[in-house]
Amino acid sequence: MASSSATAPPRSGSDAGEARAAERPLDLHEGICDPREFGCSRWPEHLVLLNRNTGVFRPGRCKATNLCRYCQRLYVVETVEMLTLDAMEYAPTLWAVLTAREHLTRKDTYAHLRQLRKAARKRWPGIEWFVQVEFQRRGALHLNLLIKGVPVEDEAELHALLSSIWCKRVDAEPVGQWVGAVTEAQGVVRYLSKMLAHGLKAEQAPPIGWKGHRTSQTRGYLVRPAAVMRQEARRALKLKREFWKLLNAHPDVPADVVDEIATARVEEAETHTWTLQPTPGHPPMQPDHLRLMREAALTPFRRQDVVQLPACADVTRNRLNAEPGGVGGESGAPPARGKPGRRPPPQVRLTPDR
Q1: Architecture of domain 90-223
Q2: E strand or H helix at 304
Q3: Percentage of the chain with pLDDT > 70?
Q4: What's the average model confidence in pLDDT over 33-57?
Q5: HSE, side-chain direction, 13 A CA sphere, residue 185
């Protein structure tokens, strides 16, 4: 009986292309998301963004990184680019991972990290770090720290210090904590792209609706303020997209020409104006429907203790209104300043001495 390899039909062009693509290393987007999921699913269908200069319609995005997978993915890509630009000027030296058996919340980690840095600054006054939160499959979170200001030679000493303080404050063991060097052989840029983008995977990403900051950094970690660095990262990503488009469309064009054309396109796009418009061909929305959609969109961000008042509040308000001189009482006195439902302050008259 002939083997299956001998009787198998030859691969088609698409199959051969898929085989070659499978052999290449994954980039920042491949292998971490469903390719069918494209665009923000929370953006309303009846609204689009109109480019006043070109007349192009495009859907927007909600930018809620804890409620939308698409916006979450773009945020992480932007953060990786920001840290890469920062590392090109002042690279981190060490990488640390802090884990715990208990299910910590993001709010709990702030106090723990504050005490860790307070103790570390006694030994290394210039220590700074960037924190990224990742979730394990069992639901517990762990912290990834990019550390600056500590020599590579002090790796073991830093591990002993962080492990001793961390394990005293949380349910953890020193063997579960790790500190390693960001080696020059790997390259800082590749190291950041690989380690930080690892959190894009579905099992590492926080669940939808999770509340908390996925990343944070100490005040002196970035070479410039975070808002400025993010603007630079967005512009760098725009340049990369233009490079990719030009190289795919014109592979024979020299690199310096591609650089000039891409830079000119990005500078021109920065002068364009975008406005919010109804989607062409979509039925107009009624005012009541728009109001209900706005209220539904704001519901996750409202405080529950403000939406509904307890029943005793009405009893207290009615009792105060019934008293003479109270708020809205029979005496007709104007309501007192301050919070509603309180008695007016006593009136004191000052008379001159005789």
Answers
A1: 2-Layer Sandwich (3.30)
A2: helix 304-307
A3: 64
A4: 78
A5: 1
Give 136's contacts (C-beta < 8 A, 6+ positions apart).
99, 142, 203
pLDDT band at 140 (very low <50, low <70, confident <90, very high): confident
**Number of neighbouring beta carbons within 10 Å of residue 326:** 20
Please state which of the ranges 89-98, 100-109, 128-137, 283-292 shows the lowest mean pLDDT. 283-292
Tracing tokens 């005293």 back to the chain, one arrives at 168
The reported pTM is 0.67
Query: What is the band of 300 on the pLDDT scale with cuts at 50, 70, 90?
Result: low
pLDDT in tens, 308-320: 444 544 544 555 4
CA distances from residue 347 to 339, 343, 350 in whole angstroms, order as listed: 18, 12, 10
Report the alpha-carbon distance of residue 70 to residue 54 in Å, rounded. Answer: 26
- Rounded to whole angstroms, the Cα distance separating 110 from 179 reads 20
Higher pLDDT: 207 or 103? It is 103
Interacting residues of 151 by C-beta distance below 8 A, sequence separation 6+: 93
Contacts of the segment 159-168: beta carbons below 8 A, 24+ positions apart: 159/96, 161/119, 161/120, 161/123, 162/96, 162/98, 162/116, 162/120, 165/115, 165/116, 165/119, 166/98, 166/100, 166/112, 166/116
The per-residue DSSP string of 60-127 comes to: -----TTT-HHHHHHHHHHHHHHHHHHHHHS---EEEEE--SS---HHHHHHHHHHHHHHHHHH-TT-
More confident residue, 134 or 338: 134
CA dihedral 154, 160, 165, 168 (to 10 degrees): 170
DSSP label at residue 306: H
Q: Is 144 left (phi over 0), alpha (psi -120 to 50) or beta?
A: beta
Letter for the amino acid at 171?
Answer: D
133, 206 in Cβ contact below 8 A?
Answer: yes
Q: How many CB atoms lie within 10 A of CB 354?
A: 3
